[in-house]
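Protein in question kept underneath.
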Amino acid sequence: MTTSAPSTVLRTPYQESVANYWNTNQQDPVNLRLGELDGLYHHHYGIGDYNPSVLEGPQETRDARIIEELHRLETAQADLLLDHLGDRRRTDRLVDAGSGRGGTSLMAERRFGCQVDGVSISEYQVGFANQQAVERGVAERVKFHFRNMLDTGFATGSRQAVWTNETTMYVDLFELFDEFSRLLQHGGRYVCITGCSNDVNGLRSKAVSRIDEHYTCNIHPRSAYFRALADNNLVPIEVVDLTAATIPYWELRAKCSVATGIEDPFLTAYKEGSFHYLMIVADKI
């Protein structure tokens, strides 16, 4: 495991609180029970319609069927992100910024065969993800580092693609995209999937504030993403509204044992239009 001194990684009391949240949230069934199905542990949500048949059949196996379907939907979300990284070569080097337990990084290596570096401010997540890479026999190509995605320490212009998957709400976007612009070579690709508040409606809604409180995060308005990208030479080539596609995931999750109570605020925010689920694809110029 690649490490850095905590004082250089966790630069503010807020970052310390976020790291503490993920370091102590080790037995969360909403991530672990899904990942146990195939060893791909994600820290994001799903997209696509669920198969209604999972709600039918014997009651004693209903929860297991729902969990399997939720994992299919969250893996579909990761696949969609990887679809938009473009044509990657085995010699490329990629960065998973806010890599969680490492599921998307492992999928990227399996698809492209290239080097992937994940960074997280949670030492627990870094250790867990590195162990997954060892168990899959890919530790030479997939490495997870205890580093801050605002200051990764990787060389300037050394990466061909970077992605964030529901992690941008923990950092300042202008500082983050400045770091990504530094990392990416000319023409490099950045893909972001994120929830963002709808600033057409003014201030954030009560439901969005509930989400912030639950995850110790600070959800950004939609407009902030495009201002920060433009300020850092990252030009969007595609923006996809995934809001309607993620609602089924939340409706299904509310029906099973791994529900956390945050499902209703998500569904309320999405359906009232105060919250959007976007994928932004941008190139470095």
About this structure: The mean pLDDT is 95. Residues 62-83 form the longest helix (22 residues). The longest strand covers residues 184-197.
